[in-house]
Amino acid sequence: MNEAKKEKLKQKLVKANLMDSNDTIIDCLQANYKENLLGKIKSGWKQGYIYFTQEKIVFVAIGSISIPYHKIRKLEKSTQFFLPLGMDVTYEDPDGKTILQKFSLQKRNDWIDFLAEKSGITVE
């Protein structure tokens, strides 16, 4: 992704209060997010875009998720429909509640390594 496109995307994320103006987009790619509608009873995958910045993960679809790296507590590999594309991110929300978000994306191992480095945790 070229710098002009990154800057344009950054302005949109800043305007939506998903990113600070002094943060920088590292990369953006198409991804899926597992939305739990009724707990574990019913869930579905939403297609959107995941942004990796210097400070956080931002996922944008119909809704949005923003996870600062310093709040990540656990990273795991998982699957999406038997495909080895899943990345589970457990983090602490602003209220201190532990949240699990499931994403599906290409080059998951590379991104898990990146997140482990940024968050300072070890992946088992």
Question: What are the defining features of this structure?
Answer:
124 residues; alpha+beta; PH-domain like; 7 strands; globular
Write the layout of secondary structure elements.
Layout: H1 3-15, E1 25-36, E2 43-53, E3 56-60, E4 64-68, E5 72-80, E6 83-92, E7 98-104, H2 108-119
Antiparallel strand pairs: 1-2, 1-7, 2-3, 3-4, 5-6, 6-7
Biggest β-sheet: count, sense, barrel? Answer: 7 strands, antiparallel
Strand line-up across the major sheet? 4-3-2-1-7-6-5
Sheet/helix structural class: alpha+beta
For this structure, the CATH topology is: PH-domain like
- The top-level CATH class is Mainly Beta
Question: How would you sum up this structure, described in words?
Answer:
This protein is α+β, with helices and mostly antiparallel strands. The protein has a single domain, classed as PH-domain like (Roll), CATH 2.30.29.30. It is built from two helices and seven strands. The chain has a seven-stranded antiparallel beta sheet with strand order 4-3-2-1-7-6-5. Strand 5 and strand 6 form a beta hairpin. The longest helix has 13 residues. The radius of gyration is 14 Å and the shape is globular.
Could you give a quick summary of the protein structure above?
The protein has 124 residues and is an alpha+beta fold. It has a single domain (3-119), classed as Roll (PH-domain like). Helices cover 20% and strands 48% of the residues.
